[in-house]
TrEMBL record:
This is GNAT family N-acetyltransferase. InterPro entries: Acyl_CoA_acyltransferase, Bact_Acetyltransf, GNAT_dom. The lineage of its organism: Archaea, Methanobacteriati, Methanobacteriota, Stenosarchaea group, Halobacteria. GO terms for molecular function: acyltransferase activity. Pfam families: Acetyltransf_1.
Amino acid sequence: MSIDSQPADDAFDVRPATADDGDELAALYANSPDTGDIGMAPRFKIDPYVAYTEIDPATDTHGIVAETRDGDLAGAGFVSFTDARVGGEIRPMAYLVGLAVHEEYRGRGLGKRLAAERVQYAEDHRGDDCVVFAQIQTGNEPSKAVAETWADGFPYQTVMVPMQPLDEAPRRDEYTVRPVTDAEHDTVVRETDEFYADAELYAPHTVDELRQRLAESPIGEPIADYFVVVSEGELVAGAGVINSHKLMWNKLETLPPELEDADELPPAFPESREIKPTGIADLWYAPGHEAAGEALIESIRAHPDVGNRIGIGIDPDGPVGRIVDTGGQTWDTYIAVRGLEDPMEETFVAPSI
């Protein structure tokens, strides 16, 4: 499939992002809220270039920026590389993230150009077999229109479930939740891969990657954790946790009129309109231990390190979707995909956080 990039205004130059772009990236993202049903703009506690490229030390991430003739950043986007199951086989995959176009320069084809540049970068570096995907918030018609220029379609939909922290987790005598030990790394990697063995967009893990994520951080303290659930001496559930609120937070800028005009915000949003996120990733549970998965989520929500909103991405038809109480509050997303001829409708999707 060719890319309909709709040439952007030639007042912009596109180049790779560098570590020198940090201050301008921070200003760009602050002035470029989403255009979906829920408009948010990220605010960074550290250099945004570092945040995007080092939040996951086991993933290779690169940025593209567009600047005006005066040298001001007008737009940016990042692309992360991994290998994942697509169409039932492991293939190279590129994930488009962090697209931002300054409000002053919207409507000039810049979003399409930044998407086309990242798709081309992905295929140049990972080959024509590389599958490219992006998650797009429901109601974000401009971003969906951009994706239609490069994607083959929108075969999957997932939801993000935002949850509030708990003062303490409900007592469950049959389960103990604790951090994973070094000796258990092999087990949790094996169990995770088995749990998601048929899931689309799942990136298989390695022990080295798990250890790298737990040990390395762009700040002076860990941002990643891994917790397990033990029952009668056996591991029966586990999940990774990313405390990205230590690197950045999201400012809630706009809401649909029915929410904006309500007497109070729904539970998905703090009254401060400052969303400080923690993500739960790749949760698994042993057969018959759905309650262990529930106990794990409750324990993470009660952990003192989490932000003011804990998010877990789910396919509602998948095994994790069956144990997550959405509370009627979800952020729905389309998944745009390029390079997948025959989507697998009979399986579930392992969404990225």
